[in-house]
Design a protein that fits this description.
Elements lengths: L1 E5 L1 H4 L5 H11 L3 E5 L7 H14 L3 E7 L8 H21 L3 E5 L12 H21 L3 E5 L11 H11 L5 E6 H6 L14 E6 L19 H10 L5 E4 L10 H19 L4
Parallel strand pairs: 1-2, 1-8, 2-3, 3-4, 4-5, 5-6, 6-7, 7-8
Length: 274
């Protein structure tokens, strides 16, 4: 496995794109995941990201996209977000990434107005459309499991069921987020059931109660146990550290380096980084 970082860690600390990429490389990461919106950046920023990564020999493995509109009940909103996600996939192709990390969002109105199954099928249909587009580009889509009560995919069971309904096992796969699994009560050994669908991994810690995205060791998640299970599935892709909203933005480099050192040590102990 390779060890990567989602660049939002630096962006949310108010640091420039190039600064964040340079620090990511200097700290020792193998790759980077990019959190940006192709509809919000101009051509200069778009090229800055690619040119800087090429110069630093820092490959882009994933581009992150939150697209709650894919499960909206309004067809016009769905169409917009399908096209928006295609723009993301085009960006993945331009950047030489492996996948688009896709977050579908949550059921609306607490499932009391629109039947949950109906909204589920809307999501399946739109992900199938995007899966076909991704396949033509030689890309994958990886779906993120979110640890919130009304998230469409919020357990190993719902992840597997959604992927089965989509029915594109080589193109649409699962992102395994370690702290999210812990928050929804999924034990490390449940990862074995995801063996055939894993496409990407996110890694962070939390306090065991709420979403946190902390550096490993600052929370209670038995990260090494999850990593061991991921290793034992035969997964050989990228594990990307996800850090959000550092309490000390001026010390973001130390925050990221702490996360890198802890994770690199665990991966070395498990013999799973190459």
């Amino acid at each position: 496995m390779k060890l990567g970082l989602i660049n939002s860690a630096f962006a949310q600390a108010g640091k420039g794109i190039r600064f964040g990429l340079e620090q990511t490389k200097a700290i020792g990461f193998d790759s980077v995941d990019i959190f940006t919106d192709p509809l919000d950046i101009d051509i200069r920023e778009r090229r800055l990201i690619k040119d800087a990564c090429d110069e630093l020999k820092l490959p882009i493995r994933s581009v992150c996209c939150v697209a709650a509109g894919l499960i909206d009940f309004n067809p016009s909103v769905q169409r917009f977000h399908v096209e928006r996600c295609k723009s993301y996939l085009d960006l993945c192709f331009e950047y030489g990434a492996d996948n688009l990390l896709l977050v579908l969002g949550e059921y609306i109105w607490q499932q009391q107005v629109i039947p949950a199954r109906e909204q589920w099928l809307i999501g399946v249909d739109n992900v199938q459309q995007l899966g076909r587009y991704a396949k033509d580009l030689g890309l994958r889509i990886v779906l993120e499991l979110e640890p919130f009560k009304l998230s469409m995919i919020n357990s190993v069971e719902t992840m597997l069921a959604f992927l089965e309904d989509v029915g594109m096992p080589e193109t649409v796969r699962a992102n395994c987020d370690i702290s999210h699994l812990y928050l929804v009560g999924a034990a490390p050994d449940q990862i074995a059931g995801m063996k055939d669908v894993l496409g990407h991994v996110h890694l962070s810690d939390c306090n065991g109660k709420i979403h946190g995205d902390l550096p490993p060791g600052r929370g209670v998640v038995p990260i090494s146990s999850y990593l061991q299970q991921i290793r034992d599935t035969g997964f050989d892709g990228t594990v990307s550290i996800e850090l959000e909203y550092s309490p000390e933005p001026d010390r973001i480099v130390e925050w990221v380096k702490e996360a890198y050192d802890k994770t690199a040590e665990m991966m070395s102990h498990l013999g799973c980084r190459r």
